[in-house]
Specification:
By secondary structure, the chain is an all-alpha fold. The protein is built from 18 helices and no strands. It starts with 16 loop residues before the first helix and ends in a 5-residue tail after the last helix. This is Conserved oligomeric Golgi complex subunit 6.
Length: 594
């Protein structure tokens, strides 16, 4: 409650005597105090407001006596009323504090209960921690083991992915339902890589590991199944499409042949089927070309030209040569070598690296088998044509024709092939027929000349041209091949150089070309000597043999053996001639009996 003490305003001191008398007057002091009170003070105004609330304001109509009485009553009971009011407020405050105290007591009870519960929970937590310590340690151990097992699982997964085939890859290699294709060859490639990597597991200090042995066994089984599948695929393809004259080779066949090169026995089995199929196809096509011609009758059948030996033999040889070239290209495609002849002149020397030598060997074997079926019909017709000719000129032309194709086929199919041997036999037969035809010409009994007769000169010219062709086309190739060999390969153990043996396959040609002529010279000289005793047969024989020897001398690289035989025969006749002339000279001079 606010104080009712009014604020006293300051005023100047009264120094006059009358003023000092008034200051001692109580009424004056009271009035002065009332008049000097400042009712604008906030505390005063608050106190007056409180009093007005405590003591109600009289009505405006009340008279002054009533108002004064009311004010006097208020002044008298102000202290008591204020104390009563203060007591009531204190009682109210005490009552409120009692309720607060009760609430605080209840709160304290709850807090105590909470403390007890927390203590119990803490105790339970402590006991639980003690009880779960072992479990936590076990959980930590299991967590570490799980991480270790997870790492091992990752390693094993990677190991299995690197060293095992998936189910799809196994099906691609072993199942008959999955065709041979890119997926199959990818699986085989992975299987071969697994085997290469697995050799590391087999090379440990403790010997082969169990895992390595198991992997090698499983991959070996799968790989063998894959090779068997390739064999079945190639066999089917070769039997199905090999009957066509022109066979298209796709990438799958090329890759299959390439894969089987690591299994020569399986490759040989597949290629033998291909060779047999191609042999029948080529033989059928050749017989059709001889008797029926091409499609729609063009080109015309070769047999229609049988009356013209050169045209007839040339057409047959040209067809065979074209078939050999096509077969060579086809087999080169099968082996995956593609355009292996690109940039090479027709009939020129083929050169192969060491890696291609094996492929070239089986390609020539296949060509030998495939084209070998043509040798019989071709050789029979050529020999029949040659033997039916009476003119040596025709035989000579056929011989030159055979010589050209012989050299060409020799470079393509090899010296050991049936086609090459058939060409050699036909060429030898032609030369032999020509030689016997020329040697059957009788000597002119009226010709006293001692020079070689005309038929020997003609035959020698033919032989010279044949040897020139052989030397330029065949021996240059052999000499170049020998020059390309390492120097150690041309020396024997004693350091002496080996003889190259050039022209060894030309020896039979020289035999059939020269032996009949030499035989006819000897027999002809003896027969003519009997008819003309004065004619010097020995000189004629020596001159003829010397001329034949002079034809062979420029080609000594492959005629040395034949020259030695003729020289031996020539020396015999020269010795006989010397003996004859010596005896005749001694007889004429009378010294024979001395």
């Amino acid at each position: 409650m606010s104080s009712l003490t009014p604020t006293t305003s300051s005023s100047p001191s009264i120094t006059s005597p009358s003023a000092q008398t008034q200051a001692k007057n109580p009424i004056s002091l009271r009035l002065y105090k009332v008049l000097s009170t400042n009712f604008e003070d906030y505390a005063t105004r608050e106190a007056l407001g409180t009093l007005s609330e405590l003591y109600g304001t009289p009505d405006a109509d009340a008279d002054g006596a009533l108002i004064g009485e009311h004010a006097a009553k208020a002044r008298r009971s102000l202290t008591r009323d204020m104390e009563n009011k203060l007591a009531e407020s204190s009682a109210t405050f005490v009552e409120a504090l009692g309720e607060v105290d009760q609430k605080l007591t209840e709160l304290q009870t709850h807090i105590s209960a909470m403390h007890m519960a927390c203590a119990e929970a803490e105790e339970q937590l402590r006991s639980t921690n003690d009880a779960s310590k072992t479990v936590l340690e076990r959980a930590g151990t299991l967590r570490d083991e799980r991480q270790s097992i997870s790492a091992k699982s990752t390693i094993i997964t990677l190991f299995l992915a690197s060293f095992t085939l998936s189910q799809d890859e196994m099906n691609a290699m072993t199942s008959r339902d999955v065709p041979v294709g890119a997926a199959f060859f990818a699986a085989m490639e992975k299987c071969e890589k697994i085997r290469e990597d697995c050799r590391v597991l087999m090379a440990g200090e403790e010997g082969p590991t169990r895992a390595g042995l198991d992997i090698m066994h499983s991959t070996s089984t799968a790989l063998e199944a894959g090779y068997e599948k390739i064999l079945r695929f190639l066999t089917h393809e070769f039997r199905r499409t090999g009957k066509d004259l022109c066979l298209e080779v796709n990438d799958t066949i090329q890759e299959g042949v390439k894969r089987l090169q690591s299994r020569p026995e399986l490759l040989s089995e597949a290629l033998s089927i291909l060779a047999s199929t191609r042999q029948n196809a080529l033989l059928t096509s050749f017989l059709h070309a001889l008797t029926r011609g091409g499609p729609s009758g063009l080109p015309r059948p070769i047999e229609l030209h049988a009356h013209d030996p050169i045209h007839y033999v040339g057409d047959m040889l040209a067809w065979v040569h074209q078939a050999i070239a096509a077969e060579r290209e086809f087999l080169g495609t099968v082996s995956g070598r593609g355009e292996e002849g690109a940039g090479r002149m027709v009939g020129s020397v083929r050169r192969f690296s060491k890696a291609e030598a094996g492929e070239e060997e089986w390609i020539r074997e296949l060509m030998d088998i495939g084209v070998g079926g043509l040798v019989g019909p071709l050789k029979n017709r050529v020999l029949q044509t040659v033997k039916s000719q009476e003119s040596s000129i025709v035989s000579y032309k056929i011989a030159n024709l055979l010589m050209f194709y012989w050299v060409t086929m020799r470079r393509t199919v090899g010296e050991e092939s049936e086609a090459h041997r058939g060409g050699v036999q036909g060429f030898e037969a032609s030369i032999e027929a020509q030689s016997w035809a020329l040697s059957s010409i009788g000597l002119d009994l009226d010709d006293p000349a001692l020079t070689p007769p005309l038929y020997i000169l003609d035959h020698a010219q033919v032989l010279k041209e044949v040897m020139s062709v052989y030397q330029s086309s065949v021996l240059d190739e052999e000499q170049e091949r020998l020059m390309s060999l390492p120097s150690d390969a041309d020396h024997t153990k004693t350091g002496e150089k080996k003889k190259p043996g050039l022209g060894s396959d030309f020896g039979k040609v020289l035999d059939v070309a020269i032996d009949p002529v030499v035989e006819s010279v000897i027999k002809g000289g003896e027969e003519k000597g009997k008819l003309r005793p004065r004619w010097d047969a020995s000189v004629w024989i020596v001159n003829s043999l010397t001329y034949i020897l002079s034809v062979l001398e420029p080609f000594s690289s492959f005629t040395q053996e034949k020259q030695e035989g003729i020289k031996t025969l020539l020396d015999t006749h020269v010795a006989a001639l010397i003996e004859e002339h010596t005896t005749s000279l001694l007889d004429e001079s009378g010294l024979l009996a001395v």
